Each structure stands twice: as structure tokens, then as C-alpha cells.
Please model this.
Amino acid sequence: MKVVIIDPGHGGNDPGAVNQGSFEKTYNLAIAKKIQAYLQNNYEVKVLMTRSSDTTVSLKERTDFANNQKADFFLSIHQNSGGGEGFESYVYPNVGAETKKMQNTIHARTAEVMRKYGARDRGKKQANFHVLRETKMPAVLLEVLFIDNVANLALLNRTDFQNEVSAAIATGVAEGLSLKQKQQEPKNLFIAIAGAFEQRKNAEARVQFLADKKISAFIDEVVINNKKYYRVQAGAFQKRENAETHIVKIRALGIKDAYVMVKAEGGSVPEPPKPIPPSGLTIQGPTLLLADELERFVSKINPNAPRLAALYVQIGQVYGIRGDVAYAQAVHETGYFRFQGSVKASQNNFAGIGATGKEEAATFKTPEVGVLAHIQHLYAYSSTEALPKEYPLVDPRFNLVQRGSAKTWNQLNGKWAVPGTNYSNMILGIYKSMLNDAKGTIEQRINQIDKQLKEI
Ligand SMILES: [Zn+2]
Model:
């Protein structure tokens, strides 16, 4: 890589030319730093400074430094004074073509900016300056503007002028040295793909599977060769290694078709849609409330309710389903078993199975079969396992369910009831009331017991 030395003239004890409170050294350093930044940001080049702060550096130190670095080019930045106006460039007398070329490109680029700002081009000159003479590499000294000229000083104090003139000088250096322009590296995103599916429901099942393992993912729809695919995106990373680490974790779960996809900057990465909340109470789990507690709650509203709670508790236990919450679902679906909707009490259908609006709800021979069908339907949603052997399959819609697609009651929203965004809230609201009702009864009983204990 080529090495360029930028030399901000003067500094420290040596202010250079002075115009009242304005010091040459300050402008030299400001412009030199901007040239350095521009070169480094845009070209494959190493740029070193003879000083990068307000320090005293001798002329010998400057040229020794450049020679030791075996630099390819030396550029000294100064401001003029002495009653003139405009810019000029210098090289050592009788230099070779290489140095002349550098002076030409830098001078030409600088002249464009000076013309724009109305400053004079004073020409390409030669001089026996130390930094031009003692440097072993091509060297150019630029007198940017006159610090003792009011209009020139006003320009030097403008940020836009400083930026433009610095960029122009840097471009001239780059042209003269034929510096390679930096490839603007596209910022890639490394995306962990945990499978791609032709069927959306399979992608949904994969998202759910990952959610259960505490890995958030969402479905990214893509069209490849006119065919739609549902890609499961399980994280995007700025570093490939992080994406690879994540993929290893996903593969360890048995997802062998996981891979890292590279997405170039500007390529559209869809915003993750709101994920189905995997949080909340699971459908599978133990039944907490007793059949008596469940029925006492319902009987306060419907004293004639059929006695189904024991069936929910018992069958729920066989399937590992929370029978008390399933019972709360039945309470919601049947309106406390008053059956005032389209499903009649004689149908023994306590969860509206098959009642889609188009189709009529299923009918079950006995209340026990009805409860069994309800629990089996919940099992279809919450489990991917085979049915327990204890009972025959009675749920007519068991095989229409995307197995394992709802592990929590919240996830039944939009599935059991469409659109049903509030469906789980209704069920869980009833269940909460049941819990509080049971708690109240138990607290009463504890108070009675405490009272009794005190009386002994
Ligand atoms: Zn100077």
C-alpha cells in the first residue's frame, strides 16, 4: 500500500504567518487532517502526519520522518502572507516527471475549488524549500490562501470551503499516485434460516417449535421461480460467526435444514410481524381446581347446569390437559351451559366443535363423549404425540388440526374461534373468576379453622 505524508506547516512555538488572532498553523492542521481523512476514507492508502496536534516539529524532523517511512509522496500544507491573494503550489527546481505530475493533478483539482470561491490561481512554482529539497520522494508544498487577506481569511474560516478544498487536494493526490479507490464494502446481514416450506402451516409449526425452545422466529414469504416459499427466519446478525453459532444451536434441536443466508445491504429484510405470544398459560398441565369447586362456581349462575366438571378433571388428566381451564372454555362456549346459541344442549357439544358458521356443530351421543371430544380437540392443538390408548378417537375434526400449533390458550386465538382475538381472554377471565371463587371459599374455611383453634 502506498504511503503518503501530510505535513501541516509550523505548529507549537511556531505559529507561521499571523493575522491578528489568526495563526497559519491552525488552518494548516485543520486542512491537513481533512485531507488525511478524505484519502483514508476513499482510497487504499496509508496516510501519516508529521504532526496531528499543535506541537513544535522541526523541518529536519519532518523530512527525516518521511524518509524513514519510505513514503511515496510528501505534501506540505501552508498559508501565504505578504499582501497577495489566491493559491499557489511549489516543487523543488528541476524535479522529475513524477513530481511534476503530482503538482499538476493537485494544482488542477485545487484550482477548480478556488475558481468556485473566487480565489486567484497564482500558478505552479518552484522553490528551494527544506521540505521539498530534503525529501527523497516526490514532494509538493501548497500555499492554500493568504492569511493576511480579508477575503481569503474569510474563506479559510468557512467549513464548506475547508471541506471542499481538502477533498480537491486529496483527489489530486489520489490521481497523481493512481490510488485504488476503496471498495465500499456492502454491509451484509447474516440471516439464520431454520427451514423453508411450501406449506405455510409447516412453517408455522416450525416457528412454534422454535418458540417452545425460546428461539424467536418469524415467517418470511419469498417467491423463487414463481413458487412461493415460507422461510422461517430465526435471527439476523451483522457478523457471520454469530449467525453460525446460532445455526449450530438450532441444528442441535434436530432442525437439520437450518442454514445461514447472506443478505446484502439494501436487500429488503421484512420487518418481523408480531409473533404469536408463546407466553401465558399452557393448555397442557395439571388440573388445579376440584370438580366441586368448578361446579359450585357455575351453579351460582346456572343452578341447572349438567354435572360435567368431574368428567373434565378425569379425562383431562388422561390427556395431560388442564381440565379446569377446558371446563372454563366449555362455560364460555355454552354460556354457563344454558345453550342459548346455535348449539343445543342435546348435542352434548360443549366447545362448539365443527360450528364454523357454514357447518353445523357436531353432535355427541352422551355428555361423556362430548367432553372427550373437547379434550381430544385440545390435545390435537397442544400436542404432536399420538393419542393415549385409553379412549377411542371421537373428535370428528381431530385430523383437521395443525398438530402442536397451539401450546398455550392464547394461541387458540384465531384458530378455535376466528378471528377470535379475544377468545383466550374470555376463557382465562372465567378461569380467573373460578380460581378467586375457590380461594375465597378456602380462606373462609381457614378463618373458621383459626377461630376453632383459638377456642380450644
Ligand atoms: Zn508557512
Summary: The pocket of zinc ion is lined by residues 9-10, 16, 24, 78 (CB under 6 Å). The chain has a mean pLDDT of 91. The chain has 13 helices and twelve strands. The two ends are 97 Å apart (CA to CA).
